[in-house]
# Entry
Amino acid sequence: MIDTRIIVEGVSDVETLSKAIQDLALGSEFGVTISAIIPTTNVEIAKKSTVGSDIVLVATDADRPGRDLSERLFEELKGKDILIEKIKFPKGHTVENADISLISKEIKNSLIRIGLKSLKSIDSSIEKDKFISSLEKEIYSLKIENQDIKKKNDSLEQTLEGFVSEKELVNSLESTLDRINVEKNEIELENSELKKEINSKEYKISELEVRYRDLEAKILNIYDLQSYWAKVSNDSSPKVNEIIKAIEILGLDRIEASDDFIVAPSEESVYKVLKLIKMGRELTKN
# Structure
């Protein structure tokens, strides 16, 4: 039940209010119970007496002193965790002398007004809750967005760090490439020098070969026919015409023959001629 207390100006008003309340079914109609009727014109006493209540009704006379008291009580009690409302009477009426049915009606009207104000307060509270909920959602959304932005920023920073690392790597590779190019140029220069040296030596070798061939052409050795033939075969020594024919077959140059000697640049040439003659004789025998 809703704890409701009524403030009146004097003790005589308590009796009148009690009679008016007896004719009402406030519990079943409004869920309200009148826990106290407080007779006082002292604001401090009124404040202390209403501590813990849910609703405070102010029932003062409809004259100037009553209105002043009612306004003072409103000023002091508003803002507390209670609902406060006046029990209104026609101008000039006092609580003590008012009609009981009028008082009962005004008590109900006061509770109805409080109910309407409460609905407005509830509606306002609901709107505030909706607004707060909307703000909370927006704040949450902004937090999520901020987190996304932070993640993107972290990602960008990492990417930037990667770019910096890649740039450092590129710089390092470029430095290495420059060094390799320098080494390559040095090697190419050295290779060029070596080629020149090789070409020079090849030219000298060619000169030596020419000179050697000239010398070789000029040098002829005289070989004893009988002595060299004995090393090749046991047959009788070949005739001059056999030797000339073998020389022609072999296509040898600078070889001359007689019955006793062979003039040739080397022993190898002599052996070639004599071996061909031996082979020819063997083939003829067979």
Q: What stands out?
A: The CA atoms of residues 66 and 196 lie 131 Å apart. Residues 100-218 form the longest helix (119 residues).
